[in-house]
Fold these 3 entries.
Entry 1:
Amino acid sequence: MVPISLYFHIPFCAAKCAYCDFASYPNREGEWARYFHALWAELESWKGALAGYEAVTLFFGGGTPTLVDAGYIAETVGRARALLPFAGDVEITMEGNPGTLAPDKLEACRRAGVNRLSLGAQSFDDGLLRSLGRIHTARQIGEAVALAREAGFVNLNLDLMYALPGQDMEKWRDTLERAVALGVEHLSAYSLIVEEGTPMAARVASGEAVVPGDDAVNAMQREAVARLAAAGYGRYEISNYARPGFECRHNRVYWERGEYLGLGCAAHSLFGGCRFANPDGLEAYLAGGRREGFQRLGRRDAMEETLMLSTRMTRGLDLAGWRRAFGEDFARGREDALARLEKAGYAEVRDGFFRLTARGLEVQNAVVVELMEE
Amino acid sequence: MQYDQSRIRNFCIIAHIDHGKSTLADRILELTGVMKQREMTDQVLDSMELERERGITIKSKAVRMPYTARDGKEYELNLIDTPGHVDFTYEVSRALAACEGAVLVVDASQGIEAQTLANVYMAVEHDLEIRPVINKIDLPSAQPEVVKTEIEDEIGIDCEGCPLVSAKQGIGIEDVLEDIVAHVPAPDDPLDAPLQALIFDSYYDNYRGAISSVRLKAGRVKVGDRIRMMAGKCEFEVTEVGAYLPLGYSPREELCAGEVGYIAASIKDIADIHVGDTITLADNPAPEPLPGYKPVLPMVYCGIYPADGADYETLRDALEKLRLNDAALSYEPETSVALGYGFRCGFLGLLHMEIIQQRLEREFDLDLVTTAPSVVYKVIKTDGTTVFIDNPTNLPPVQEIDWMEEPCVDAQVIAPQDYVGAIMELCQDKRGTFKDMNYIDGGRVVLKYDLPLNEVIYDFFDQLKSRTRGYASFDYELKGYVRSDLVKLDMLLNGEQCDALSIIVHRDRAYPRGRSIAEKLKEAIPRQLFEIPIQAAIGGKVIARETVKALRKDVLAKCYGGDISRKKKLLEKQKEGKKRMRQVGTVAVPSEAFMAVLKMD
């Protein structure tokens, strides 16, 4: 059986956050049913293409999947299971907002097969949470984790954010401490990306919000690595940390260029050697827009993608895998650049992998550009 | 109109910048009817976009206008517009030599200013009848009587009954023309002598070839005549003669002594026409040319490269086109390790250089990288031979150099006496040798210095302007070569020499220049993965050092779900950005860095 991952985009939320530029719509309860029917129809349309495949991971992302009725999630999982076999250890993740959880909802999802919950905690500072436009408080994060545990979830993630306007090292340390204290299995620590067109971008442009400088951001990131390592969370990707055996398998599929189908609006796919995506907007999706920006990946695309994705992981780029895929050594034509990078302490080759050091990960873009072919 | 020298008036308009010279010229064209109002774009004579924008005239132009004066007689007025910058001093002097009079425009509220005086002195030197005109009398701040007294006291020109005008409102324009008719002397040139036509400008016309703008000082010329360039030594057959009208040519049967017009003779290369040369007839040549001819030599050189190597051909074509109209521009292909293929270009001065660069960028939509301007150095080698170097890269190895010489200019600065101290300080700073100082009327001083040309091209003009608040006028003339302790200053990036950044500089200047360039490069080169040492060195000895620290943070925190397109785009952009930079060894240098070096403190 060929492994595949499925991503379902749930583009609904209770309120738009200040930094968010994803496809996510508040106040659309009236369209939930229509949307899920379209989603299921899209899933059905893949039936023939999925022959011979086995689902290894499912992921409900958003938006806020925990906002909608659990029945929609359960029905989606059920329809997928009817379409293709699931691996015995299938990982089914659902993202959620700590402010939208209820015991029965969580139990229903758990019963439907969801076995991993990823909560957008972002911060344990109520002031920062407010300025981010989050609908929950720090206290609700703890309550959400307790609810999830009661519902039987043994694999929990919290998303945290740093490099926030108004956030200093002390606040960040406090957030890390309190996240660790909750004893979750997985933590993501994302540096804020100020996206164009968001309220956050307007605040930064007007000077109302000031983003910490590069050095301060690096320091926060290093603090996360150190603090989380001490608590037993290993860094396995630029922004991701897990207790042994709890790395998110779904996300690893993205970084390792495994095949995945994205269903719903704004969902991206890598399937059959091609990348494509559904339209970003809810309306366009409901109007029947599917599979846009179709791109067949050539050898060079595959090489560049491998380089830019695998070097996000601390494990690094599999040199033998590269040779198998492309019929040549990774070092070929990159001898000088590799030597310079290693000498400067950005990268190293060890145990058959080319990997970036902690310092190298801080400038991963520049390292990748350095290693891209002309 | 019948040819009658007594009815001809050849004049120019001189003024401080912004005192309304071009607007007055426009009104005169309108009033004499050669331009209808609806045909007028602002400032007709400044036809180049750059000229209009910068308010400076770059090329000389002549326009003929018929004018029926109040005495009932018809006159032929020739207005010759002149360039207004020290780079073009020689061109201006030839244009003035073609006139009998000059209209001096003074702003009624500003009064006499720096350039007013410099222009007046030049006009006096050419024996021109100077006719003051007080402009902008419509402004509330206008004080025409005060300004008149100022002119009388400081310049010593009688302002009794001088025209009070507002060129903008069209007030008093006729008075200006009447004043010209009444007071500018008519030419008095011998018609029966052999032809002597003074070339005061040249330019290229697609149909007529290279054209000479001329003032006939003697004789006559007509279609079919065989003409000879007395300094240029070449001969051509005249295909057309005539007068200029603002919107085009007005062919005539012949041009006669005292007249201003053009001569076309199917001349392919504008380099055959030398401004200041005398045109005569091949079969009846004048015994000698008109005085004042000087061959025009480029004084300043720099390398011009396309920012994108693929634009090399476009750049070559563009230079060729500009050269058609600009005999003073020279260019030759050259290559640089850092910048690739480009051209070594020669200019009259820095403004000329700047204008050419801007025209290349605007009119031909080119992105350029320009190297530091250089003068032509004379190198006497140990084997006794002499070479001239206009590109520091071509300097022979130190051990082959016996000694070096640099061009030196006779410089003259005129300014109010309050600024004498500031000017002397500047000239000292610039390695000048004091020669002479004279007080002239109006509390002004003429200072004479010998200055090395390479100091003049390095921010002298800007410094002079700022230290004298624009009140000093500056003029220079190449004097010759003097022996000098010169060294080649190299810039090293991560240990690799960057040829495009080398300059030749006096040993005493090497340390501060090296430091300043290193600092500017540090600002201009973006942080990269690796620390970049920047060094300034003379003959391998490092004299200044800066460091561009390594990049601190450059990472995208999140791959958005399975959407890797943003990251791909970002990296693609970074890759493109890197490609646009110049690779010097392992260091990527943005084009701006090469320009930053040209900028002064």
Entry 2:
Amino acid sequence: MIREPLIFEISGKGKRAFSLPELDVPSREDILQGLPVRENIEGFPQVSEVEIIRHFTRLSKANYCVDEGFYPLGSCTMKYNPKINEKIAAISEFVLSHPYAPFDLVQGNLGILKTTEELMNEITGMDAFSFLPAAGAQGELVGMMLIRAYLEERGNPRKIVLIPDSAHGTNPSSAHICGYNIQEIESNEKGTIDISSLEQNMTEDVAALMITNPNTLGVFEADIKKISEIVHAKGGFVYMDGANMNALVGICRPGDMDVDVIHLNLHKTFSTPHGGGGPGSGPVGVKRELEPYLPLPTIKKSEDKYILDFDRPKSIGRVRSFFGNFLVVVKAMVYILSLGPRGLKEVSEIAVLNSNYVRKSLEKDYFLKYTTPTLHECVFSDKFQKKHGVQNIDIAKRLIDFGVHPPTMSFPLIVQGALMTEPTETESKRDLDLFIDAMKQISKEAKENPEIVKSAPHSSYVRRLDETSAARSPVLRWVEKK
Amino acid sequence: MSYTSLSDKDKKEMMSRVGISSMEELFRTIPEGMKLKRELKVPSALTEIELIHHFEKIAKQNKYSEFLSFLGAGAYPHVIPYVVDYLSSRGEFVTPYTPYQPEVSQGTLQAIFEFQTLICLLTGMDVANASLYDGASAAAEAVLMAHRLKQKSNVLIAKTLHPQYRKTIKTYVRNLDIKIEEFGFSETGEIDFESLSSKMDEGTSAVVCQSPNFLGVVEDIKKISDLAHSTKALSVVVVTEPVSLGLLEAPGKLGADIVTGEGQSFGIPLSFGGPYLGFMACLKEFIRQFPGRIAGETKDVDGKRGFVLTLSTREQHIRRERATSNICTNQALCALRATIFLETLGLDGLKELAWQNIQKANYALEKLTQVEGIKRKFHGNFFNEFVIEFSGSLPKVESSLREKGILGGLYLREFYPELENCSLLCVTEMFKREEIDRLVKSLEEALKE
Amino acid sequence: MYPDDFYYTKDHEWIQVKEDKATVGITDFAQKQLGDVVYVEMPKVGTQLEFHQSIGVIESVKAVSDIYSPVSGEVIEVNTDLNDSPELVNQDPHGKGWFIRLKIGDETEFEKLMSADDYEKFLEGIEE
């Protein structure tokens, strides 16, 4: 493979990849008077169009992606991203519309936002959605702010948010930015919320419980209604992180579990691409009583016209510019309409079947700390392999040599050496078997030839990278060598 | 449509391995009473052809593209070289996750590293992150960062900072110990230095202003930064129109401590407001309090250059509630578009782009102010946006312009009640001279009506 | 392995006393658990510390840990070498990788700490 240099290293004066039409108004130097004009942009690249195309094409080949193969990142739902979504989101009337356009000139766009809201209400059993949050983390923050605003209005915002020890790191981080202290709730031996621990901690100082259902172990919190009841009895709210909604579509609805607030990740369940880390979209859904607090603006229909509603005095306010990641919402709407009611239910059925197939096929080779039945994902660990000095990170890196992306390793924190595996519904049996065979082979290697696992990957664009020196002496940009 | 891939035989085999005879058994851990006993009430599935028809019909309900529009105000129409769409739609860029496994993500990581470098070169700062959601939330993150660095509770923000950005900042700090105060603008459209200095004291952690500001006027960043530094506050500069950096001095060279803003102008279409691209850059000494993803250079075990996400301990997935921000993702694909855009334009292209913007905007303003009943509202220097004031009622003028197929900018009264009959216009390289002349002529007629 | 003249805490700090001053660091066990240390955040000289107060943060590539003061007192010196060479914590945790020096506040607090023998027994309990 060709090692691709940085663009700055192939730059040369006089090379061009772009030109503008000649300026068709008088060119005047005098208008610059009084302006702080810069002399140069030192180091700014100059390359040809061919070089641009080669540069990024070569770089693209150093990426692994869903279009290429199996990508079982747990809780990330790396399903196939339908191409028709992209085509429709590229329709010029959507792409070229200015966000300050008068409402009556963008009825199509507003209609999409409103219709998608109605679809999400039906899918989740909630009463209203806001599509402003740009990603799941912002959705969480907004969700917590809604709860706080509601409680504040009644005189006491409360102090604590309860979070299970299996939760993703954004949960405590979002609650903290919202001004809350975090109290961890222990999981029981089944990997679910311990009811007695919840009862003990659920006081009138608690604003909310943040729960993920199914949780990050892939286990459904079957006591969810009881949990909601305990929280509600003390005047608290139940916040559900919808990261794992892919297990529930068409099967059951968070709204029916007495959840008060939920955020969804359109880039997980609703098939919009991850883009190498965004743009995502993290819409927030609420029950009726929290609706007045949703961020500005919301969309309402009045006399057959969609209008943006800014006149909402209880709203927490704006959380970003304009109306959210509109084009991402378009893609999610296309996805829902392409599947219909049966197709949506099939998503969850096959996602859960695929996951259980993987689990069953590997449960003798990899340790499962929790043996509770799981839905769309399961969390193996490296306990068996550790005896041979092989850790989860080694297994992950070795998978790369087999042409498979590694599972999630960084959490849940309650499983040491976690390998959180979520195949999603889009994968064929052949791809699942490739993964299963690779995992079995690695387990064998761990016993017989651990070195080959510990020194993996062997076949990638770069091999294992020195993250320690990257953090000790950070080099965060290119600098021209003089 | 269906995007699953199992044959009937596969399904049977897999169910038998799992040990179930019906799909329902997969969901046996969900209590019966909680299950949805009906189909979801969503429209029946559409095929690809039907989807295209359906959405084309919706798209036609948008009438915006039939108009000649001079709207800007934080979202700018600019040229997008075709290679941006071509390259950024490659599946290898569109369909991977965040580059947590660097060995198989070098494409994304090197692109981020180049993006960080480009932002540093443009802003004149030491370090930049991999991007944030958008300009408004980036400005809010900058305020939170300044507060962490200074541990003082007052933040002063210019009234000429984009109204949505000001509102977003206020939402972000509402549950924290941070007080936001606004300072006004003068007759030139620049910030009112008296208003600013009267509000500054030892308790100020940051002064936030935008340049070119919401009224289009270029601020004296040096003077603002010096003033901020005189009480040990940080100078935060917000840039919503970064094409201006192809012409104007880098804020970093004028004393800014944090530069943040919106990168939509760099190869990202208007898209009805999103997804866009927040960017942020700062001085090296502030790196520990910097929010968001950062890519860094390192070597692999064979000594080859490679890139990784680094300084991750600042982030939520490790530090949990004590992270510098709760942000997980960046806007990687938008940052990639910006990277391709900037590298395609290159040094000469970006300078030329900025030059054409300022020239065309000046031409437009000059012609407009020759029309009776229109005057330039602020005399401060501007880049590609400016405010004009009408002698008559603006709504009347606007509606008569609309009849002629023109949207004449953003009516400012909603944001600044004192700017009655004022409109903010944006003129970029995308406008031909004839189109500017058409605006002038139409306004002339409208004002006579 | 663990010097006899040090005291130890359950959070894996050590403290060595010389007259009314004491040096504080983290134990060899702690540095191994953390892995390669990349950054250390320390208190300012002059800070008054209470018993078991957080005095700073130590970071490896993928983990962050608090460091707690084993006893109360005033910070009189911090190990500035760690700013440029955080790896000293891994290379010599009980020596050059020290964190801060304290002027001891309350000597009776040492009764709450462990001896080297006790600490080694404590570790056996963890490692099982």
Entry 3:
Amino acid sequence: MKKTIAMLLALVMVFALCACGGSSAPAATQAPAAEAPAEAPAAEGSVYWLNFKPESDQALQELAAMYTEETGVPVKVVTAASGTYNETLTAEMDKSNPPTLFVVGNQAAVDTWGDYCLDLTGTPVTDELNTNEYMLYDADGKLCSIGYCYECYGIIVNKALLAKAGHDISEITNFENLKAVVEDITARKDELGFSAFTSAGMDGSSSWRFTGHVANLEYYYESVDNPDAWKSCPAELTGAYMQNYRNLLDLMFENSTVDRSALAAGGFDANAEFANGEAAFYVNGSWAWNDLQASMKAEDLAMIPYYCGVEGEEKAALNCGTENYWAVNCEADEADIQATLDFMYWLVTNPAASEKAVATFGVMPYKQAAASANPFFVDANNYLAAGNYNLWWATNYQPNVDAYRAALVSAINDYNANPSDATWATVETAFVQGWATQYAAANG
Amino acid sequence: MKRKHDGSAVNSKLLRRPIQRCFPIFLLPMTAAFCIGFVYPFLKGLFLSFCKFKTTSKWTWIGLDNYVKAIHDSSFVYSFWYTVLFALVTLFLINILAFAVAYVLTQGIKGSNLFRTVFFMPNLIGGIVLGYTWSMIFDGFLGRYGSSIIMSTKWGFWGLVILMCWQQIGYMMIIYIAGLQAVPEDMLEAAKIDGANKWQTLWKVTIPNVMPSITICTFLTLTNSFKLFDQNLALTGGLPFIIQPDGSSIHTTEMLALNIYNTFYSQNASSRGTAQAKAVLFFIMVACIGLIQLRATRKKEVQQ
């Protein structure tokens, strides 16, 4: 008896090892079969969305529940912890139930994950898009991912505080008069009771605003000079607009609530500073509305472009673009793929669902999607309606983006500790040569 | 007499037969865990180090390319020497301090048990938490001088050393206390009668007798320092970098394990094989260093 039990257990172990060692394909088909009795509509497939924005997790969970309630199709939304989307995606893709819907947000991601992307050409959800601007293709012309919302970033202004300081937003039309207003506020900081800019923490929770977003102005103006080079990721930069990048960074660092030498350690809460009226300017994007709407009024808020001293910048608009691109996993089961496409279509066409989605995402570029209540998109559209130029998100091309930005953060920390031309030269090296190095590493 | 009696008890058929029959049941859980958690990932990792891959289930064989790239990666070489330096410094500091604390706490002073508990406690906190906590402590101090733990290679290094000492001393202390308590009383008494002073007793009697503890503690500190990852990630994350003129950067406080992690994730997918090759080289290095050290210190052990 005992011998048989022992043999049996040994067999189980061998079997378990075989299951681990075997290819994932049979495991993938076995797993849902085993779970089948638990979920009734398994035949219709299910949706697994790997989301990359922690701030929209709650809304997505509610949307998933809504869809399941309406159709009975199970929708699982998993959100990667802040800044770990890449790691999470790598791990999840290896599992027997990989995500059916995931985010492939830029050209580099297409290069990495293109093999896993279903060609979205001609799918109902793609036909619902009201613009061709938010589509990413791989080298063979396969439509790998489509944008599900877009965003704008720039400098958020508290107009009420500006008025308190005796200024008006209409004064600010270029770098020179932005600087004049900012420096005037700084000079009267104690009397006014607030600073010009919120803190520019260089820790992971906030540095992307400066190494990703503000950096966009440099890339964008380079792309204006040489549009052909910027049709895809350029192998190197000229660095022609580094001085403009420096202009704006210096303005933000010098006139913030926190001394620039303390910025490296981070741990500040720029959003709270802005919401509490401790600063009149806040470098962030349209998504900040989600956090600000509880404590601020829409009519007090506006967003202005990155004025940095480039000629003709009076005609600049905001930075509108997106990294929110949907891709469907072509390796998933047929039924799951269909369920996923249905879910996407529902999200952009169903009035209640799209209203909820728009509330968390901003604007969705789909024909039947709900309109947005976000004041920053009103600004964005006003600029464009006035014929100003949009700074498209050239920053999405940053090669090996994490490594590139990490080096930039380190260089900027040195610059902040000891602002001089010599330390700025290091920032330039990290910015310009760093691009070429990372491009070579990514494409070598 | 007694010893023989014990032996025959274990060897009796009554005990031996069931053990002989049922040993697979007792071995199974551990073997299964070991195979699933170690053997399989290890073999797969070894295999993947010869491949180009994005996810571990889709790979193409490319032979030794990954190893060539890993060895020529200057950041890997830098991290190696940085780790060696760190391991040596912590090896000496942790062991000397842990031994000193253990020695003091075995002298029968009041409140020994309380001190032992307090010294041991840091060891119970996870590495990431420790890293962030200490980064706040260091920054709170360095912030007064306009610096930060992530601004200076020197502070980053000593910060890590302090953190590791704080965490590990208590653990090593427990092992040393066990060793010190096992030093035969009669030997110490004989030394006293022969007129040896405290210093001589320590060097000629106590230390040779706690050599087994020293062996295990040096082994543990050495391998722990080599494998250090979470504390490194949370405390400095490799910052500050030296930006080289060609645009590449050296992460001046990045140790081997973090270097492997960064190669795997923060670069593009084509470097994952390289990271895997680095990980295999890393394993070989840690294993060799551990074995050499064990052999060297074993020789110094005395038989009681």
